[in-house]
Amino acid sequence: MPVFRLLFILLLTVPLVEITLLIQVGSEIGVLPTVLLCIFTAALGATLIRIQGLQTLMRVQQKLDQREVPAVDLVGGLILLICGLLLLTPGFFTDAIGFLCLVPEFRDWVARRVVMRLIENARRNPDNTTIIVDGEYWEEDDPQKRLRR
Known about the structure:
This protein is 79% helix and 0% strand. By secondary structure, it is mainly alpha-helical. The radius of gyration is 23 Å and the shape is elongated.
């Protein structure tokens, strides 16, 4: 499935699911408790993201100090960033996904799968070579460079 089609489907369905859940929860416990619950989950999520983000940053630094590639930890950090956005988005569906991504074992599992898929794609497409062209340039309005030509 093309990425744009998946993104379109997500941008259409996630808000509809969120609205439905907010209406259902609001009708069960009331409007004010629903709003307070959304604020509480956002604050709790932001606190947990900050703690786990700092831990991930320290792991990346340790691996770099040991001259290891921290690929899984970097992808885990990206997952934490997305998780933080989900937790700050009002709603219960995005909060559930965000809190799921806060579970370190789950996040590491997803990060490893992403890294392995990237490695597989790189091996499947060996023609993707980087071409570096060495050269010089100068501004035409620079009189000193013009004199050296």
